[in-house]
Amino acid sequence: MMQIAYGAQARAKLLSGADRLADAVRVTLGPKGRNGAVHQKKNTQGASFADRAEPGAPVLITNDGATIAESIVLPDPMEDLGVQLLRQVSNKAKEAAGDGTSTAIVLAQAMLHETFRCAAAGADPLALRRGMEKAGTAAGKALKEMSISVTDEKTLARAAAVSCGDPELGALIGRACAAVGPEGVVQVEDGQKQDTTLELQQGIVLERGFLAPEMATNPDKTSAELDDPYILLCDSKLDDIQVLLPALIACAEDGHDCLILCEELSGNARSTILRTNLQGDITIVCIEAPLYGEGRRWRMEDLSIQLGATYFQQGLHMDLRDIRPEQFGRAGHVTVTRQRTVISEPGGDPEKMQQRIAQLRYLASHEAYEFNRKRHAERLAQLVSGVAVIRVGGKTQTELWERKMRLEDGVHAARAAQAEGIVPGGGTAFLRLIPKVNESMAALSDEEQMGVRAVAKALEAPVRQIAENAGQDGSYMVQKLMGMAPEMGYDAAEDCVCPMVDSGIIDPVRVVRTSLESALSVAATILTVQASVVGGVERV
User: Fold this and answer.
1) Quick one: average pLDDT of 511-520?
2) What is the pLDDT of residues 185-216, one digit of tens each?
3) Where residue 292 falls among pLDDT bands split at 50, 70, 90?
4) Are the CB atoms for 478 and 463 separated by under 8 Å?
5) Distance of CA 494 to CAs 35, 283, 320, 337, 503, Å?
6) DSSP string, 60-113
7) Which residues of the chain are in CATH 3.50.7.10 domains?
């Protein structure tokens, strides 16, 4: 049956649902935050929590806000709309930074309460929204000014430890990130032992995902895993299966999965490959060849040396119908997601690799044109970067899943710190944004200023919640810190006020920024809702 609510009633229902989700998540914030028990769906291995749990499904103990948020479904469809909207906050933060989901939800809840109070007093929601956007712009600019760049292993370990809540795991992550550098990749995988270990491998990262979602071999993670595959490099469009058939037959006869880099996959070539995957004898995954034009040619030539493959290039009269097994590239393992491909243990000739690296070093330092120098430097970075694999161990499956999620959060935090730098952690950075946000009120209307003040007030929420989770008076702690030097913050683990960066309590700028941006976006959206509609008849 269709249900419709209007105006204040609609917003009240949305707020009620959002509150129920936020109240379940906010208790996890900070070093003394508590865990949540989540009844999983069967056979998810901790990857999917949508819909209701099935009877007999395993229980996951976690402090990951996104995981808890995904598990919540309310019986009231109007309130569940609020849950779904607030869940977008954690999803956006998770997607953009991989961490900060609980913080984003706490911020969004605080913004909703502050702005709803203003709207109830008669303020125009659209004017409030404009004020919130002004506040967000000012906060983003201030964050850039606060940022401290990070390169050393110790600081990376601290950033990871704050996120995953374990100094030992943080140290492991810091070592992994420092080893592969900004261009490398850190993967978290299930291990076969109780101990968690680090493995450093040579590897290749391509910012390209599979050309068809049906190619995923792991539906829960939407990824494809290929062990010891053949790799075909070409930059042509593949639409005729007859052209590709000799290559596929060669893979099938040797019992190898296949990764194909091409311009485009369509026609009967696409349908045949998808049908072959369904039969299950071998797995074939196609990704788009990287870059375009001259950049693509250079990158594919580099890949051919890294993988030990022949590059079938358009215009050179090379026919895929004549392919031989030795013209395929080789690798130990390939992981393909919707957005990225990671090739571990490439099978190219080490001597040829060193020759190409020496060549690129020379070109990067002697090329006359700056554009080409930068391009050669990028190629060099891609060739020398590696892959770090953290293999997660645990005494039980539940322990393994919980540790794996902690590690994934820590890796995202460390990589974010490498990319955009760090700021004082423990919610301190949000407090230090308040004066800058308040400065943005100049030349705004009264109602827009109310939107700015609402955001400024909401920025107190992370520190307040961290303090309350540690058994302290949150409001008192906020007032105490606001009267102190900018570097001072509340260390909940030690229950003291101290210089946050010097004490190793830091947050990546990307995590803070995306938490704030996602909270602002969803809170402003809910604020401007005038009607809620659920149910009804599906249109055919």
Assistant:
1) 92
2) 788 888 878 888 888 777 788 889 999 988 99
3) confident
4) yes
5) 19, 52, 65, 41, 11
6) EEE--HHHHHHH---SSHHHHHHHHHHHHHHHHHHHHHS--HHHHHHHHHHHHH
7) 202-348
Whether 128 and 449 have beta carbons less than 8 Å apart is answered as no
d(CA 518, CA 250): 48
The answer to whether 398 touches 60, Cβ cutoff 8 Å, is yes
| Distance in angstroms (rounded) separating the CA atoms of residues 62 and 472 | 23
Confidence of residue 512 (pLDDT cuts 50, 70, 90): very high
Instruction: Give the amino acid at 223.
Output: S
Give me 333's structure tokens: 């393992």
Residue range(s) in the chain whose domain bears CATH number 1.10.560.10 = 3-148+422-534
Spatial distance between the Cα atoms of 388 and 526, rounded to a whole number of angstroms: 41
CB 252, CB 280: distance < 8 Å = no
230 three-state secondary structure: strand
Amino acid in the structure at residue 46: G
Cβ neighbours, 10 Å, residue 219: 10
- pLDDT for residue 155: 87
Residue with tokens 């210089």: 499
Distances (CA, A) of 319 to 17, 316, 324, 431: 60, 9, 11, 63
**Which helix or strand (DSSP H or E) is residue 373 part of?**
helix 370-384
Contact between residue 261 and residue 272 where contact means Cβ atoms under 8 Å apart:
no
CATH of 202-348, one of 3.40.190.10, 3.30.300.30, 3.50.7.10, 3.30.43.20: 3.50.7.10
Domain 3-148+422-534 has CATH 1.10.560.10: yes
The count of C-alpha atoms lying within 13 angstroms of the C-alpha of 221, restricted to the half-sphere facing its C-beta, is 13
pTM for the predicted model, two decimal places: 0.64
- Locate 178 and state its tokens: 């420092």
- Residue 182, class by beta-carbon neighbours within 10 Å (0-12 exposed, 13-18 middle, 19+ buried)? exposed
pLDDT value of position 279: 86
C-beta separation of 303 from 262 below 8 A: no
